[in-house]
UniProtKB/TrEMBL annotation:
SUPFAM superfamilies according to UniProt: P-loop containing nucleoside triphosphate hydrolases
Protein name stated in the entry: tRNA threonylcarbamoyladenosine biosynthesis protein TsaE
Chain ranges passing through the membrane: none
Record's signal peptide: none
Length: 143
């Protein structure tokens, strides 16, 4: 599936549709890989997903802290994790943050930016969304 988003409202709609189709896994967390260059819309998409899930906190890029956790209430997931592997060189660095325990909990929803930096520790079958900067207001989003 490919869309061209020409506004925040269109990205918000894509996020709402994406969340509506999410089905939690029975035995592990739902992990979604987000790829794209800086400024291509990855964090904006996570912000839109978070709003859709009722997160009230301000969502910012976790580039410097690597991982942020947000509680989700009254939904099929309990926690939203936003990870950014931009500054990581190996997947083993994610292991030190407790990724294995986070992935083991089926009610966790995890969005991982820059998955290519840690691909050696990621399952092969995770959903991937790629973002491409077209211009100031336009992004290509491919699921």
């Amino acid at each position: 599936m490919k869309i061209i988003s020409r506004s925040l409202a269109e990205t918000e709609k894509f996020a709402q549709d994406f969340v509506a189709k999410l089905i939690p896994k029975k035995d592990e967390a739902t992990l979604v890989a987000l790829s794209g260059e800086l400024g291509s819309g990855k964090t904006t998409f996570v912000q839109c997903v978070a709003r859709t899930l009722g997160v009230q906190e301000n969502i910012t890029s976790p580039t410097f802290v690597i991982m942020k956790k947000f509680s989700i209430f009254n939904f099929q997931f309990s926690n939203l994790y936003h990870l950014d592997a931009y500054r990581l060189e190996r997947g083993e660095e994610l292991a030190k943050l407790g990724l294995e325990e986070i992935v083991a909990e089926p009610r966790n929803l995890i969005f991982l930016e820059w998955p290519e930096n840690v691909k050696n520790v990621l399952p092969k079958d995770i959903p991937k969304i790629s973002f491409e900067f077209i211009d100031e207001n336009t992004r290509k989003i491919v699921l």
